[in-house]
Amino acid sequence: MSLFAEYEPAAQGRPVAARALAIRKACVRDVPRLAQLSRQRHGGQEHDHLRSWRIALQEAQDEERALILVAVILGEQVAFGSARCIDPRDEPAYRAVPAGWYLTGVIVDPAHRRRGIGHALTQARLHWVEGRAACAYYFASAQNRATIDLHKKLGFVELTRDFSFPRITFTGGVGILFRTDFRTRT
Q1: H or E element, residue 148
Q2: Each residue's pLDDT tens digit, 71-80
Q3: Who's near 45: CB < 8 A, 6+ residues apart?
Q4: 18-181: which CATH number, 3.30.1540.10, 3.40.630.30, 3.40.30.10, 3.30.70.360?
Q5: DSSP E strand stretches across the chain
Q6: N or C end of the chain: smaller count of CB under 10 Å?
Q7: pLDDT digit string, tens, across residues 116-158
């Protein structure tokens, strides 16, 4: 099971028509589909994913701490993206991690990949974070070239490979921490 999409920079699906794609904040009725998407990506037990999403959705009620967005096409939830405000003083296991807003994950249903949905979710999260901060961060496995390319196009630059987050391990053992500054983005 691959945790992220294969790197195929030339591969493009049929783009989703802008009027067919809706991006909105997640709600309770989305939990089963969010759990299904995350279980499809990460494996594990359904009840664990359901519980995790219920907790995450409760945390996202506090817009000063978290955001969960859902991408919907014709009534079907096909992807989600999240963001979280992280303060490294909250847990000693953070190392070399700046305080701020982090884009913390996007999962697009494999049947809907390479159609611009991940890009749209990332732009929507950045727009939301921009109303709350001067910059945004994200981290990824150094092997996840698809997400690295996407984020570079949106103005992210590498900060460091020498950092750690609690309970996060990276495929291949190397993670990269990125930052974008809203004041200098074009």
Answers
A1: helix 145-153
A2: 999 999 999 9
A3: 39
A4: 3.40.630.30
A5: 21-25, 66-73, 76-86, 100-108, 135-141, 157-160, 175-181
A6: C
A7: 999 999 999 999 999 999 999 999 999 999 899 999 999 999 9
